[in-house]
Amino acid sequence: MHILITRGYYSRNMTDILDVEFLTMNGEPTSLRQLGGSRWLVVNVASACGATPQYATLQALHEAHEDLTVVGFPCNQFGAQEPGTHDEICDFTSSKYQVTFPLMAKVDVNGESQIPLFAALNQSETASGQSGDIRWNFEKYLIDAEGGVQRFSTRVQPDELPL
Could you give the CA distance from residue 37 to residue 35 in angstroms, rounded to a whole number? Predict the structure, then answer.
């Protein structure tokens, strides 16, 4: 895959990112394209983080934008703030935040065990020029139908995204 990076975006040549496979909570392979929608908001999520209340706004965005699919990737790499099993994560997010957007299998978003989707996403830059490894939970990637990627730090609230 050839990746052309400009500030804050992958080039339009990144349609491949829509077809990179990852696993659902049920262990089935899928991709962003297979999940449906024409825009995707990919977020590394955690249940015991100061940013965990962002789940509520992510759910609101998922409901408010018919063409947007929010996709959560539980990750335990930051302060061990997502220690739960798949069932515990789903129970917590549905009971506390009424989450109905898709949650995928727990993954590593950095390091040697990083899944290919995040290996590609992490090459994009935030508006402030930060690229490379994710720094904390709830980092966000807004992906359009052509594979263009905008990256946002944890501090950017979901309702501040340019939707």
Answer: 7
